[in-house]
Design a protein that fits this description.
This protein is α+β, with helices and mostly antiparallel strands. It has helices spanning 21-32, 74-82, 96-105, and strands at 8-17, 35-42, 47-53, 62-68, 85-93, 116-117, 123-127, 137-141. The structure holds ligand V0V.
Length: 148
């Protein structure tokens, strides 16, 4: 890895906050012809979520729909303040520990001291939007079976 690289591999997903997951999935399938490849409830993050493959291969990038489990969850509060829309941009990383340490060295705040559980047993962390030009950046290290 060269000194500037933090091990980013590709855009993993663009996360979109929506009030109702089933309606959101139906809209993206009907309108854009995307395919829902995964749904899951993440209680710790307070979300019901769905991954929709943008093209034939989900590894080339997904839209992630995020619906709140509770009004006081992160997505619930975001919807109340800003309404539905883009919530985050997520990058796949080779090694989340390496990426987070490199970002901390560069003066960027990570939200968690240690990575937490994300979609499909991935490990995730976030860069605070105030340290990333107003964009919530998620880092995703896929579970071994999903990486590549
Ligand atoms: C808040 N702000 C944002 C933002 N959320 N700016 C851009 N994008 C967002 N998504 C801004 C907001 O406008 C305020 O700016 C400021 O940050 C403080 O916001 P707040 O409403 O007071 O909210 P906080 O501070 O309570 O929470 C903001 C953070 C929170 C980013 C700390 O959303 C968080 O912990 N996010 C990480 C977890 C998460 O997002 N989980 C749900 C997805 P002004 O008004 O002060 O200028 S879970 C997921 O993606 C999974 C499981 C997965 O992908 O696998």
């Amino acid at each position: 890895m060269d000194s500037a690289s933090i091990g980013l591999l590709r855009i993993d997903h663009v996360g979109i906050a929506i009030p109702d997951l089933d309606e959101g999935i139906a809209f993206y399938e009907r309108t854009f012809g995307m395919r829902c490849v995964h749904t899951e409830v993440n209680s710790e993050q307070g979300v019901r979520e769905a991954m929709l493959a943008v093209g034939p291969d989900p590894a080339n990038g997904c839209v992630q729909l995020l619906a709140p489990l509770r009004p006081d969850s992160t997505i619930g509060k975001f919807l109340e303040k800003k309404g539905p829309g883009i919530h985050q941009v997520a990058y796949t990383v080779a090694d989340i520990g390496v990426a987070c340490d490199a970002l901390r060295d560069r003066g960027v705040r990570l939200l968690y001291d240690e990575p937490r559980q994300g979609t499909a047993d991935s490990r995730i962390n976030f860069v605070h939007p105030k340290d990333a030009g107003g964009v919530l950046i998620e880092l995703v290290e896929p579970a071994p079976a999903h990486s590549g």
